[in-house]
Amino acid sequence: RRKFEASFMLKVVKFAKEHNNCAAASQYGVTEKMVRDWKANEDALKSMPSSKCALRRGTPHWSELEKHVADMVHEHCQNGYVVTRNKIHMFALQWAKSNPDHSKGFKATVSWCTRFMERHNLVLRQKTKIAQKLLADRDGKVSLFHRYVIQQRKKHGYALRQIGNRDETPMNFDMVGNKTVNPKGAKTVLIKTTGHEKSSFTVVLACTADGAKLKPMIIKRKTMPKIKFPVGVFVHVNEKGWMDDEGVKLWLDNVWSRRPGGLRAHLTTSTNKRLARINTDAADIPAGLTSLVQPLDVCLNKSFKEQWNEWMVSGEKSFTKGGNMRAPQLDVLCNFVIKAWNDIGAETVIKSFKKCGISNSLDGMEDDFLWQDEGEAKAETTPSDSELDPHDDCLTN
């Protein structure tokens, strides 16, 4: 589709007045209908900046909808809740669905969101962060990893249910987002927290290449509370809330051994012996490459942080007498992990393995999955939370 600046359209209009519409269309390579339309809107074109191609200003087409969306954004900003462009899209679509009389033809396009933010003087504010460093010879390392996986699959003939991946996802009791929509020029950007953003725990997730998801494991700091945990999650206590050799053994005995699946483990001598006893082979993922060949890192982990932020906005909360928000109880946390994990579809899990080149057909017919973008794969990527993770590996059983 061709675009024409206001200065060009006015030049065509001037030529058409001096000669005729047909001559102007032929001279400038446009249609006569364009010439007629531009002549009819000559006054509007003169009021536009010469470099603009369209006049988008004044009252929006869906003014009632935009008023409610703007109220939502400002209310969330005042309460310290994270607002993203995606949240604006979802809220606008929900409101449009509930109020069809005021939103006929509304599609919540990317360009609409951009213009909405401009009209309401909103910008996207972001924290700076250091992303995971990729190795200089990353392509060679990735090729070696893929070659090893293919060799093991050909040698042992693993079924998809025997190829899997495990990941330790560090989380905070406050998953404070890095971005939020906020009024332009504001000197202070408020994001509400429970005051426990430095208190962390670890969620251990595992899935297999056939789309199955293993029972999640939660590693809590210090002591085990005397409460009844929901079915569907395994809870372990560690002094620092991390996965250590003892945690790996517990995970192997209580999760992995009971249902074959994928694994990234701490490969100490004792762990290797235990893996051998349960007939499991480990494929090391090179440190620094988890964002490329780790299915959970590449496609699945992001939903946990998104749902955690959603809980911060709309989940059930309790408060102290002073009005401060309390961190969630461990049983509430367990239910959150179970729900978030169950919300991930089997098809997304299957595609995550193919996207990382682990479970693709050995005849090369599925190699295109490696080069699909996020929209085609229907999965979003997220970088590793650590710069270098020495405990990354993939297991087959």
TrEMBL record:
GO CC annotations, alphabetized: nucleus
InterPro entries the record matches: Brinker_DNA-bd, CenT-Element_Derived, DDE_SF_endonuclease_dom, Homeodomain-like_sf, HTH_CenpB_DNA-bd_dom
Keywords assigned: DNA-binding
Lineage top rank: taxon: Eukaryota
Transmembrane region(s): none
Name of the protein: HTH CENPB-type domain-containing protein
Presence of keyword DNA-binding: yes
UniProt domain HTH CENPB-type: residue ranges: 53-126
Pfam families in the cross-refs: BrkDBD, DDE_1, HTH_Tnp_Tc5
Thylakoid listed as a keyword: no
Compositionally biased tracts (Basic and acidic residues): 388-397
Region feature (Disordered): 374-397
A GO molecular-function descriptor: DNA binding
